Amino acid sequence: MIDGRAFFSRYIEAIESAESYIFIETYIFCDDKTGRKIQQSLIRKAQEGVEVAIIFDAFGSLSL
Asked: What is the pLDDT along the chain (64 residues), one digit of tens a residue?
């Protein structure tokens, strides 16, 4: 069984291992501890030259 902690740990590992591009589509993206970790990983990869694109649902991500 994969719980939230394991899922997001692997999610961030996948972001960190990207070399060319990262395309993410998600319903919910929250401004919480996990969301900020993901955000920082995406920013870091973009600064390294990796193409980063994220699409999220406006209703599911109201906190942003």
From this structure: 678 889 999 999 999 999 999 999 998 888 899 999 999 999 999 999 999 999 988 887 877 7
φ, ψ at 13 (rounded to 5°): -60, -40
Crossing angle between the packed helical segments 4-17 and 33-47, to the nearest 10 degrees: 10
Q: How many helices (H) and strands (E) does the chain have?
A: 2, 2
Structure tokens at 14: 């996948």
Neighbouring residues of 11: CB distance < 8 A, sequence distance ≥ 6: 38
Q: For the chain, state the CA radius of gyration.
A: 12
Pinpoint the alpha helices (H) of 1-62.
4-17, 33-47
